[in-house]
Design goal:
By secondary structure, this protein is an alpha/beta fold. The protein has one domain: Metallo-dependent phosphatases (Purple Acid Phosphatase, chain A, domain 2), CATH 3.60.21.10. Helices cover 32% and strands 19% of the residues. It is built from eight helices and ten strands. Helix 1 packs parallel to helix 2. The longest helix is centred in the first third of the chain and has 13 residues.
């Protein structure tokens, strides 16, 4: 079984389209998007449509929550994003679950430890980072008593894998605006093995459609697109996380 997990589209539909095309070429059985779908990019509606057209499972992220709580009449990015969405889009966001759990095909259905858990930030909330620089103790305090041993998430926009206690942590990073110095959109393909109850995780990268993205940002009417363009190309955080 192949499960493709992507995250943090942030309204950058050209990058999402490239990622989805690559996923389809590799024969994924299921696609899961780990939240932060709309805000801060030029095409919030188009990003939703692409996920719907590809029958993706989707969990909500912190900016999806923030868009729902934003006013549509303000001048900031969240308000602009809210103003672009139709009532059906807002209803779709409201109905997104917190997590997706996928049983390993070779495991006992009652064995939750073999599940692949997909969340936005961590198994408890959509705000706290599972940072690659945190100690095992700090990570385990956030994770709590989660039974699933393989946890896929985004939120941080930094690709990394790490073992923390019994947990295999896989940050699938971001489709829209990566922040680890590599601009390429990416996702992770989780592959089960019928002779095992683990999940192999492989990163896949595609080239960023920069020209198309810049043209879309200009045409969209999004606020301060020049700043967003600069931040996109920097592909890094301006402060340590």
């Amino acid at each position: 079984m192949k499960i493709a997990v992507l995250s943090d589209v942030h309204g950058f539909s050209p990058a999402l389209r490239y990622v989805l095309e690559d996923i389809r070429s590799r024969g994924a059985n299921q696609i899961v998007a780990a939240g932060d779908i709309c805000a801060h990019g030029p095409d919030p509606v188009g990003s939703i449509r692409l996920l719907q057209e590809h029958s993706c499972s989707v969990v909500y992220g912190n900016t999806d929550r923030d868009v729902l709580n934003a006013s549509a009449s303000g001048s900031d990015e969240l308000s602009w994003t809210r103003s672009q969405l139709k009532s059906d889009d807002l209803d779709w966001l409201r109905k997104l679950p917190f997590s997706v759990r996928i049983s390993h095909p070779a495991s006992d259905p009652q064995d939750a430890s073999a599940e692949l858990l997909i969340v936005h930030a961590n198994p408890v909330d959509v705000d706290r980072h599972l940072s690659p620089n945190a100690s095992d103790r700090e990570l385990l305090e956030i994770i709590g008593d989660e039974p699933a041993r393989t946890i896929a998430f985004g939120h941080l926009h930094v690709a990394y894998t790490r073992q923390a206690g019994p947990y295999n942590l896989v940050d699938v990073s971001a489709v829209g605006p990566p922040r680890d110095g590599d601009l390429r959109p990416r996702y992770v393909m989780f592959d089960s093995d019928s002779n095992d109850v683990g999940w192999a995780a492989d990163y896949h990268y595609v080239d960023y459609p920069l020209d198309e993205t810049r043209a879309l940002m200009i045409a969209s009417g999004m606020p301060e697109w020049q700043k967003a363009w600069t931040r996109l190309n920097e592909a890094t955080y301006r402060r340590q996380i």
